[in-house]
Specification:
Distance between the termini: 26 Å
CATH superfamily of the largest domain: Glycogen Phosphorylase B
Number of helices: 15
Radius of gyration: 22 Å
Number of domains: 2
Largest sheet: 7 strands, parallel
Structural class: alpha/beta
Strand order of the largest sheet: 3-2-1-6-7-8-9
Amino acid sequence: MALAAAHDMNERSKSPQLLDATMFWSAAGGGVRRYLLRKREWLRQRGWRHTLIAPAASQPDIVDCGGWSLPFSGGYRLPLRREQAALLIARQGPDLIEAGDPYRLAWAALDAAQRLGVPAVAFCHSNLGAMAACLAGRNGVAAHLARRTAQIYLRHVYRQFDRVFAPSAAMAGELQDLGIERVERQPLGVDSRVFHPCRRDPAWRIRWQESLGLPPGARLLLYTGRFAPEKNLPLLVAALERVGPPYFLLAVGAGPQPPRGERIRVLAHEERENELARIYASVDGFLHAGDQETFGLSALEAMASGTPLAVRAAAGLAELVGDDTGVAVASASVEAWAEAIAALFDSGREARAGAARRRAETFDWGRVLPRLLGRYQSLLGNYRVLEARTDSHSESLVA
């Protein structure tokens, strides 16, 4: 009764409330965290209320739902108590719930949505099938069984949501192939005013080269993100060793498996957007060898910064970066990546960087988030119509 009363009060409020629940939250940052914080700010500026529930959240305006620390995950924690999480979500009285992972919090979001009579959506931020296959050895019978088991589970949970958002057409297609019908492509975005070529800072570049012990003529490449197995960072290390001087890789992030090598320099995760944008714009190139990316937010930030980039031509990265906007590497071989690194400095460098910047502008948050808001409003409208019809039908039965 208390939960129902709280939600009735919320329904009478003029401003709708969205609740996001996700385990993809850690001090190491990550694309999901950046998406949630940017969306939160944007919605609040437009009169929405926003609540975020995540494990081990350190910010005062984010609800901590607890969870067990996952080894080798880069700081993620897994909530296990479904009923407790569902009650925590329901107590916030949201009008709409978005689950940012397919695990315990997804089930808790469904439970809370049913109790409150509100819509629930899921955002597919990770390719669970590909991740399971990677953990099982990528190839062979074990990998196939792991992928298939994960896909069956994913179909079971996602088919119960009112909508499932996928950040790329590739991910949306995979979900639809699993028999999940209510899938919509909803890309992530970038602040193209913050991540901009004008952020280039030659003085910063010189100071950092000196502090990192790099020679004056060094070609400085960049990777940003979590240091996790699916990012294939050892491949980049091997490629840097193959090309040798004057190439160096600056890895900015955190996680259980930081890259190591003579040509590697590691910096801690950078939370400040302006400082991160200066790093992107001041290096000579950006690298990302991950083959499981559902979108590729860090690659998009590099594109917006006008920084030439080489990425793996797989999953969401293949969709985001083509040969006209970067160097798309079809192979996971060290030789192919060594060639790609060298190609970043060929005669097509400036043309690709300019095309990448123009493409990134089409993903500006100012274009992406209004589409997402429209989807939220459509869901809320559909639910209100359904509730009105249900109430009318109940009244006619009583009469």
